[in-house]
Amino acid sequence: MLATLSIANFIRIMGVGHSGAPRNYLTAGPFLAWIVIVNSCLQGGDMVAYVWMTAALLRRELEVQPSTDPLTGLLNRRALELGAEEQILNGNRTHSPISAIVLDLDGFKRANDSFGHHCGDAMLLAISSCLQRAMRPQDLLARIGGDEFAILQPDTTYGGATEIANRLSVVILSNRDRLRSGADQC
């Protein structure tokens, strides 16, 4: 649409350059009258398209915002509850197991108070990243509180969830030094 508007303006400039600028474009002949009409329609269309695209971007952002934790980018408690509802219905229908793991970071408040909230935020981001790398694509990972995370695991038995919880514990503990060094730099 912008290209067509540019072409119409170019034709208008060429017409004015060739014939001179009339006092009233609509009485200057059909050529200039149509150029003005087409130009006005294209400008109106461009404005509508701009508003439409802006509204679409805002709508997409507003759809993501209520279901996402602003700090970590993970799902929030509300999104996890909606996902759990859907997974439970699906699990009941297909008779497949569902497991959940809830993680609480020991000593987080003490570290947050000692090093400051910006370091606490950095720790939450690092832990979120560790958890995301250890998750399966079908798992739902959410931050449900200040230092609490939950993982909903469809098609996972109690034994499978226990193995995954142990693996997550190892992943987080193996990155403990990196987390501490990040806090020391704050």
What's the short story on this structure?
Helix content is 67%, strand content 10%.
CATH structural class of the largest domain: Alpha Beta
Mean pLDDT: 84
Radius of gyration: 29 Å
Structural class by helix and strand composition: mainly alpha
User: What summary fits the major beta sheet?
Assistant: 3 strands, antiparallel
Oligomeric state of shown chains: single chain
Distance from N terminus to C terminus (CA atoms, Å) equals 51 Å
CATH fold-level assignment of the largest domain:
Alpha-Beta Plaits
Lateral arrangement of strands in the main beta sheet: 1-3-2
Break the fold down into its secondary structure elements and pairings.
Layout: H1 2-19, H2 30-64, H3 77-94, E1 98-104, H4 108-115, H5 117-134, E2 140-143, E3 148-154, H6 158-174, H7 176-185
Antiparallel strand pairs: 1-3, 2-3
